[in-house]
Structure formats: C-alpha cells, structure tokens
Design brief:
This protein is α+β, with helices and mostly antiparallel strands. It has helices at about 10-15, 110, 130-150, 155-180, 185-200, 205-210, 215-220, 225-235, 240-255, 265-270, 275-285, 290-295, and strands spanning about 5, 25-30, 40-45, 45-50, 55-60, 65, 70-75, 80-85, 95-100, 125-130. It folds into 2 domains: about 5-180, Jelly Rolls; about 185-295, Orthogonal Bundle (Arc Repressor Mutant, subunit A). InterPro entries: Homeodomain-like_sf, HTH_AraC, Tscrpt_reg_AraC-type_HTH.
C-alpha cells in the first residue's frame, strides 16, 4: 500500500490550495479548498476536521465513517487515514485546523496534549455536534484564523494557543455529553465487553495469547483503544484495565478453591507468564496472597 507522507502544515496547505497563515498552524475553509486526491495519508501533525455536510468517506484502518452533518474528527501525528471520493454533486462545507507539535513547544498545552485522548479515536468515533456546539466551534476556529491573519507580535502565539486549548477543553465536554446521550449504545458495548471477558477465560486464549489486554477487547468491539477506554471509564468509574483486573481476580478467587491445582498452575491458566506476577497483583487487589486466601477460606 502506497502511503503519502504529509510532514508539514505548509505542505498540506499547498495540496489544498490554501494560503499558509503560519508555517506551524493554519485554519482553512472547505469553500476555498481543493479536494485531496483519493489516497492513503500519514499526517505528521495534528488535524481537526469540522464537516458540516455528508460528502464522502474518511477511512481509518478497516473502519469507514460516512460523515453526518456537524461532525468533528481529530487526527494525531502518525495516524494513517484513507481519503475516498466525495459523493457526486456535493461540495463539502466546514473548516480544518492543522497544527504541528513544534508550535506548542515550551507551553503548558504541550505538556497536557496527551490528555486529550480523542486525538487517538478512530474516525468512525467522531464527535457529533449540536447546532449550538457547532456555532461555538466555528467561532473559536474563526478567532484563531483572525489572529493568524493579523500582523504577528509577541502576544500572537499566546492568544492562539489559549484559544486552541479552549477549543480542546470544549471538545472534551462535548465528548462527555456524547457518551451520556448515547448511553444505550454504551450499555450494549459494556455488556458485550463483559461477555467477551467471560468467554476469554473459558477458552484457550490465556494459554495462547496471555493476559487479556485493553487493545484486544477494543479490536474485538471495532473501537480504538482510547475511545473504548474512555467509554468504560464513563460507564463504570474505573479504567478498562482495572475492569479486566477485577474480573481476573474474581475468577482467580474461584479457582483458588480447587486444591488440586497449585497457585502456579492457576496463574498460568489465567494467562500469567510468571506466577509471582499473579501473586503480586492478587495481594495488591485482595490484601493477602493467593495461598493466604486459600488458607483463610
């Protein structure tokens, strides 16, 4: 598969036929942009796409997402995206903001950027905006664009970054709202996760694969690991990793009552490579070692 590597904001702006307002950050309007050729791209910078019309597909890995109106998609450096043809006779509307990590160097936003986990969501996990939310996003994009069009001075970077961080904070709030409004979908995912967990431990996967991972279940549910992890945290109050560990400990407690199996055999059966790792986790979660738990009960 041929992958087009887009290294810089300026390179992307040139491909879209847009003026580069700043070499490390740019805001563009779809009304003024050339369409990207249908191809697979590796972005070397952060992108946020605000699509206001249903116009075509953007594919991330094996999953496709056909945009609904007013959607935000976040792309982090290194992500591979496939751009497919627009639907005929429909011109996309919306805005694009792109910025390089170097623009944030030495700022507070640079140190917390990884906290905005939605940059690692898949494109089919886009943020769907209400009309009011869309207006807020457009206003924030316009504020950044207008600032970039001014004669740059010592205040410019501070003002742009503060507006960018404000936008990312609102996006966090909007995603929280989306998790709540799609609660019925989330409950189905949680139920399926529980079923997959139970099935995992009665299969030969612990011996063949090892301990169950967040990535494994995310892939089984056709979700990105970050989106899956955030969804589980919103629904249960604990991380997906903690949820898996609690299930593992519950199953371990049952198996410890089988006196015909040693603690080491139980550990291997659960997928641990080293029994001492099982003992350490069990004592951390239960307060006593597996042998002490067996003797106590």
């Amino acid at each position: 598969m041929n992958i087009n590597i887009l290294k810089s904001v300026g390179e992307y702006s040139f491909l879209r036929g847009a003026t580069t307002l700043h070499p490390l950050i740019n805001v563009m309007d779809y009304d003024d942009l050339k369409p990207l050729n249908s191809a697979t791209y590796n972005f070397g910078f952060f992108c946020v796409f605000l699509k206001e019309t249903k116009c075509g597909d953007l594919r991330y890995g094996k999953e496709s997402y056909d945009y609904q109106e007013e959607s935000l998609v976040f792309v982090a450096p290194g992500q591979i995206l496939t751009v497919e043809k627009y639907l005929p006779n429909i011109k996309p509307k919306g805005k694009v903001i792109v910025f390089h990590a170097d623009f944030l160097k030495g700022t507070a936003l640079s140190t917390i950027l990884n906290d905005y986990s939605f940059f690692s969501y898949a494109s089919n996990e886009a943020l769907h905006l209400s009309e009011k939310e869309r207006e807020m996003v457009v206003n924030m994009f316009d504020t950044i664009e207008n600032e970039l069009k001014q004669n740059l001075d010592k205040h410019s970077k501070t003002l742009v970054i503060s507006q960018l961080q404000l936008f990312l904070n609102y996006a966090t709030r909007f995603y929280d709202r989306q998790f709540i409004t799609r609660e019925h979908i989330n409950k189905g995912i949680l139920q399926r996760f529980e079923e997959l967990l139970n099935t995992y431990f009665v299969s030969d996967k612990p011996q063949n694969i090892g301990l169950p991972s967040v990535n494994f279940f995310a892939e089984e549910l056709n979700l990105s690991a970050n989106y899956f992890g955030d969804l589980i945290k919103k629904e249960t109050g604990i991380s997906a990793q903690e949820y898996i560990q609690l299930k593992l400990i519950d199953i371990a407690k049952e198996r410890i009552f089988d006196n015909e199996k040693s603690i080491s055999e139980i550990a291997y059966g659960l997928g641990f490579k080293y029994p001492q790792h099982f003992t350490r986790l069990f004592k951390q979660k239960v307060g006593v070692s597996p042998n002490e738990y067996r003797n106590l009960n």
